[in-house]
Amino acid sequence: MDEAQLGKIALEAKQYDEAIELYTKAIAKQPNAVDYYIARSQASHRRSPPNRVQALADADKAVNLATTRQRREAIFESQQQRFICLYGLERRRSCCFKYGNRKSPKIKPTWLENQENMTIELLNARGVPKDQAVVDIQERSVSINFPLADSSSTYEYNVDPLFSAIDPSQSSYSVTPNKIFVVLKKVSPGYWKRLEGVDDGSTAPTPAPRIPQEVLTGRPSAPAYPTSSRKGPKDWDKVVKEATRKEPKEGEKGQNKEEYDDLDLEDGGDDVNFFFKKLFADADPDTRKAMMKSYQESNGTALSTNWAEVSKGKVETSPPDGMEAKKWN
């Protein structure tokens, strides 16, 4: 465990001096971590005797960082800790909401991601000089600083630590007339739970959703049809394949039977068309006449193999239920 995690354990165990020491080491490594300042402020305020001045200084620092980074939950927690420190110092009149050092409330940070990259955007960052924008990308942090066009102040945006490691050499940023965006290359592909990291050790990206094998191979599994059979649903694709399977011809008995199962069917592998072509090819002349007459006269809506019935008259068009047959000019 790192210093921050050990400091959290010490704080919960009411070992405040040890917690202060551990959080001080953690802040030295990550000086923009809001949670560390809040925790050290709590430890300084609760120790005996309390160091309320140091506790208030840490709370003020946490408010400034949280407001700059626009983290609502952190702003509330740091403001709450600041109120407690001011109350302990009997400075009740100072117990008001502090807005921190955010320079421009119009600029709105946002982020979006895919499996490979995390992109941070600063919307409404208008008129930023490209040569004066400073973007520092590290393995576990990113900071953006630039002068505001409408004032003499500087806008600061920091994320430290990031949720997971990134590759600075493959990351980049761009300054446009209306916004600044930073593209961070993830070391481990996957989805992050959030932009910023915390002390719970959850820094591993969420693996990407598994793609079904039938999508990758292009061979979807056969659909299961409702059935009342005790043996379960019947695989009709298999039934058609068995019916259309080409058997070995005379003189070819030495070949493997499975070779005939794997022969390419006609019409690009359409089992249904091959089935009816095979049926027509193997039929006697009367059956063939019945099939041709019924199919042509019914406009493709009927197919009969009974010549005794079909020969009696014209086969009428019989569209499927819910459809209507129309003549085309």
TrEMBL record:
Repeat region (TPR), residues: 4-33
Keyword Transferase among record annotations: no
Pfam families per the UniProt record, alphabetical: CS, SGS
Chain ranges of the SGS domain: 224-329
Stretches for region Disordered: 196-267, 291-329
Biased composition range(s): Polar residues: 295-308
SUPFAM superfamilies named in the record: HSP20-like chaperones (SSF49764), TPR-like (SSF48452)
Keyword Protein biosynthesis found: no
Gene3D superfamilies listed in its UniProt record: 2.60.40.790, Tetratricopeptide repeat domain
Entry keywords, A to Z: TPR repeat
Biased composition (Basic and acidic residues): 232-258
Domain (CS): residue spans on this chain: 104-196
Coiled coil: none
GO MF annotations, alphabetized: protein-folding chaperone binding
Family: Belongs to the SGT1 family.
Identification of the protein by name: SGS-domain-containing protein
Source lineage: Eukaryota, Fungi, Dikarya, Ascomycota, Pezizomycotina
